[in-house]
Amino acid sequence: MIAISALILIGVIQGLKVYTKQGDIIEVPSLKGKSIEQALKILEQNSLSAEVVDSIYQRNKPVNSIYDVVPEEGSKVKSGRTIFLRIYSSTPTQKALPDVQDLPLRAAQERLKRLGFIHFTEKEVEGLHKGLCVGIENKDGKLLEAGKRVSVESKLVLLVSGKATETLTVEDLINSEPNIDVKTDSLDIEPTEAKKQEEQPDNWF
Known about the structure:
alpha+beta, Trypsin Inhibitor V, Chain A, four-stranded mixed β-sheet
């Protein structure tokens, strides 16, 4: 009975080794910078599988090339393990446009840069206060609302108010040239009380 039990135990242990593939350890190969096709071929040769789990857009990077691997390269894994790949996408990232209403031009530019927008110019429009942004247009002149998702590669136009045209300051009035020619002889002005008294005769009788 003892011998039979020992044989059964040894058989179970060996079966577990085969089932869990203990001892069949593989090192994750170097895949960064390679295309998906190249990576799949290399992983297949090493009895590993692959799955693309994420992608990002980055300028001047080969489309569909690998930039990250999980588990990381050089890690020890079992045969048949799935390796997760992150690749460079062909589609630029989209971001929501920030609200730049009434922001100074420099502040609006910094807000766009922090979100990844780099292609933008300025166009002067009328406004109440000089140097403030009043909105964003696309390259075709269409006004874009804050919160609208657009590609970070989009060419944007910041609308910036020029000199105020709807209000006049005291300085504007002082420096302005007089342009009203008033002819006093054409005005019907009531004489003052003193003038009336001078015009009345000394004697009423």
